[in-house]
Amino acid sequence: MDFHSILFETPEDGAPSGDVAEPDFFGDLNLDQFVGEATRGFDEYNLTPFFRTVLNRESAITYRHEVMRDLDGPELLLVIQAFALAMRKTRTCLGEAQRLYYRRQKQWWFLAAATHYCQCVLAICDGLSGAGPRSRGLKRFGAWLTGHVGSGRFMKLCHDVEEVRGTLAGVRYCIHLNGSAVTVLNYDDEDDYGTFVLGIFERFKQGEVKDHSVEQKDWPEMNHVEAHILDFVAELNPLPFQLLDAFCSDQADFLDATIAAFDREIQFYIAYRSYIQLCRDAGLKFSYPVVSGATKSIRCEETFDLVLAHKLCADKVALVCNDLFLEGPERIFVVSGPNNGGKTTFARTFGQLHFLAKLGCPVPGRNSHLFLYDRLFAHFEREENTLDLRGKLQDDLMRMHAILQASTPNSIILMNEIFSSTTLADALFLCRRIIGEIMERDALCVCVTFIEELARLGPQTVSMVSEIKPDSPSVRTFRVRRRPADGRAYALSVAEQYGLTYERIKERLAS
């Protein structure tokens, strides 16, 4: 059976070649932090391009979901982890074979690499057969692997490895030391004087004693004396070393490209699973989303900002989850409420959900139905750059113009506190025009704003409000609920912060 990739269902899904540029929205959504942390400890696999490359077909996303579900089972996960460990040993031995100096030692490490490789390929073939994966990806790989193991090329490799190792294991020799002279001889049933000496001292043994011997490190490098001894052994026993020479020449490219690619790509799933495990251990829910490009009705319950959750779970701090949904003609979340109440986090969550869904990964939350967008844009507030000779308002307008030019009806646009540098009237005028453009495109959008009138522009807009504690306006609940904005929570919070409530003003006047 043909097998293409464990990550990409078809070649058209776009397996990245080389590096992949970081998307523009990564910094705004903290996805750069997510990728950096998720790939930590996986440097040898270069997983970053995979975490920056999204899928554009529903079937390709389902393909990854199936593999991830298989790996949720402990038996298959152990098979993959054992395979990865053995492949790491193979690469380590190959690295030593390239790094070391003496030819025969390089050949020995190359033989060790081939030995680990044969063992791990046979082990994962048996392991996949016994575990019975359900995903198309692992079933196809298992079927391909069965054919590969039975191929003449692999069978010859295993035979050659066993033959060379067996022949080398039969080499026995003696070393005669006389001052600085070293003589290498074939073994001829000489007595083992080491055993003889230990037998003499055994009679004086009076029980267990503390070991005062100095620990000797077994360095992989040979010194010149050891190298010469090995050369002499090869002269005395030419056949085993001739077989080793021939093996290293004939099997120079023993590592199969498909198996090497599988070893790298499967780590994408392992890395993501490892990243979210901290959140799962804290009781947070993840789900495999239903992703569709045919409907813009979306839903996710008990969802959260994945990067924020990872940090809070590491610090043993509780996290507040939120629900979100759009149905019918609804396309735009207008998020308002007091500062530091979770509005920006809500926008990031919305963007992260859709990006992770296009990666084919389980997303934060339950009962998730998400949209298969074509491009994602983020316009978050940035500090004014004095070097570009543009004011903040001009910069906001130019960035927003570029987004509207590039967006389509299938795009997602995230806007966070834009036009905060101008007057309320101007900001309201500009936001109405921009949201009007987005409504005409029928694109999905999250608009975090202090202008609550934007939530009443039409049936496409939905008001979401970050709430405070009713009896303590300065305390944020970090819950963002679907309800009309009234402005009172924001006003009360600001007044309390600056001591401008009715009671505080009366106190000061009375004094």
TrEMBL record:
Any one GO CC term of this protein is:
cytosol
Matching SUPFAM superfamilies: P-loop containing nucleoside triphosphate hydrolases
List each copy of the DNA mismatch repair proteins mutS family domain by range: 330-510
> Does the UniProt entry include the keyword Glycoprotein?
no
Q: Which GO terms describe its molecular function?
A: ATP binding; ATP-dependent DNA damage sensor activity; mismatched DNA binding
- Show the PANTHER family listed in the entry: DNA MISMATCH REPAIR PROTEIN MSH1, MITOCHONDRIAL (PTHR11361:SF34), DNA MISMATCH REPAIR PROTEIN MUTS FAMILY MEMBER (PTHR11361)
Q: What is this protein called?
A: DNA mismatch repair protein MutS
UniProt organism field: Paraburkholderia caffeinitolerans
Report which gene this protein is encoded by.
Answer: mutS_2
